[in-house]
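Listing 4. Sequential folding, example run.
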Amino acid sequence: MGILEAIILGIIQGLTEFLPVSSSGHLEIAKAIFGDQQEEGLLMTVTLHAATALSTIVVFRKDITQILTGLLSFKMNEEMMFSLKIIVSMIPAAFIGLFFEDQIDALFEGNILLVGSMLLVTGALLFLADRAKNTDKKVGLKEALIIGISQAIAILPGISRSGATISTSVMLGIDRERAARFSFLMVVPLILGKMAKDLMDGEFSGDSLELMPLGAGFIAAFITGLAACTWMIALVKKSKLSWFSLYCFLAGIIVIIWSLT
């Protein structure tokens, strides 16, 4: 993989991780166009996800600091309750990842027809969420579990993780800004956990992708991720999800036609 291709993939990941259009789906489409080998694609995908996880940490550094401070106080305060909700939301995706890893990996082998179909599902979710009433409701433990189930379903390439979780939150009546904040924070532990598991399992021991493309992709994903994360929060507050819904419908139709021809 060349540096230019890595930068393009990084920009795609940085934008689509936070914008509700499916980062996994767009990366699969891009890798299919570039014709990357599976091993190189896996290492690059993990690197790019690490970059967007870091950008999330930077954007929400104050929230994360408050959460960690609350946890270290060992008191049942607001920060501790928020941490419990994050843990609850992680359970469905962690369960799927641990017990169905091989089946999940099989979905990321150039199945472009699946990507196109799931983009249509993402478009439908965004369309419904944009018409939900805005309230000031907070995320509870029950809502956290339901949002977590949406996150688990969003493992499918083409279903936007942020789109699915934010849409689910909004349709549950959660305040839009809180929905976006919870959606972005809940994925960080999962990404870091997945990276740690892959490293311990030796998943990348045989990979030979050069450091320059990895570094270029990481930087591109991190910078675009910072901008997209901040932009997405503002868009959710203004109920501007319908444009992304339209994009997902159009992209899904194009990808399905492409895969069939």
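-- end of first protein; second protein begins --
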Amino acid sequence: MTNSPVLVAGAGPGGLSVALTLHQIGVPCVVFESVADVKPLGVGINIQPNAVRELYELGFHSEALDAIGVQTREWVLVGLNGNEVYSELRGLKAGYKWPQYSVHRGKLQMLMYRAALERLGPASIRTGRKVTGYRNQPDGKGVTVLLQSRNGDRSEVEGSLLIAADGLHSAVRHQMYPQQPPIQWGGAIMWRGVTKGKPIRSGASFVGLGTHRHRVVFYPISAPDPLTGLADINWVAEITVDNSGGWPGGDWNKQVRHEDFMHHFESWNYDWIDIPAMLRGAPEVFEYPMIDREPVPTWVDGNVALLGDAAHVMYPTGSNGASQAIMDARVLGAAMVEHGVSGKALRAYDTQLCAEMSQLVLRNRGAGPFGLLNLLADRCGGVFDNIDDVIPKAERDEFMLRYKTAAGFATEKLNAAASTIPTGAKVR
């Protein structure tokens, strides 16, 4: 194994998963993060059982994850008139050996960040330094990484490999694909917030209400307060508009006023949930476009590989963006156990995941599991009395199984799968 460390761009969940995995298999690494001070930013996310399994194998067990999130028990779709379209149990309730978690992204990131500082040492994570590019070394045995500090100072560092987990606006991906199409916006606008409220149904249900082009998604991301019974309810309100003119705002995540979007949902008051009250209850609301990027033919250039959103940013319709970043890191680690710290390991990782994830990006663009709401809209406009008269149960179940299989968390397959990285495995 080379003595040069693996260099990692980005200290989000993807980059930290890489760092923790490399430490586990005995590979030194250094993480470069552009922000000066890592803070718990972001919104609510779901971590699927396949990724939770990997977090367990990295040493994050239920006690740590329960402290920052909620074990999801149910996933539900509801039509425009408030009637249920589809529901299924999730996590342990669905027969998985591992739970699914709803959690604030920032809390997950900080849990992993503290663990990385403790296990790898503070010198292994260098903040205030952005990876701006790279040069594969002529002998094929390493990579030179270009850095820029927050005050503009430029420097270079040598490493064995570069793993770019530097997100949607990845400078490394841009160097690999300078002619790549711009970020793709399909016309959906999302408003996101967190409101104190009483969890409904199972107490830990993920609920999607409305149509594919006009919906609200909400789920708790904290346990209820023992005194008030109130939990943090993460919600996303979304409409789809004409995208022919491109994204109208300059900001990718700007704070907005409630009155800027509430009129789209004012009539959504049901006997089991008052959507306008939930939306108004958030102290802050942020607006985001729903975006992805066109898939690329490979994530690897010599001794450099893309990972997480840098490789496959996707619409958040299947709740598997963060989960897949964790899975990427673990598959990469397994490739290094087999092939060493080498370009060969990167190519094995790419072969296993790139084409498959490209299909998932496109599947999510086509609504992902919310595609059931497309069927519903086509057949009855989203309003119905008996869902079996519109989409028979067997058709609903088959639709969802196809999605879960494509996303890598079909129950029986996951439960029977061997560990991605065998216990105690080290790179030799």
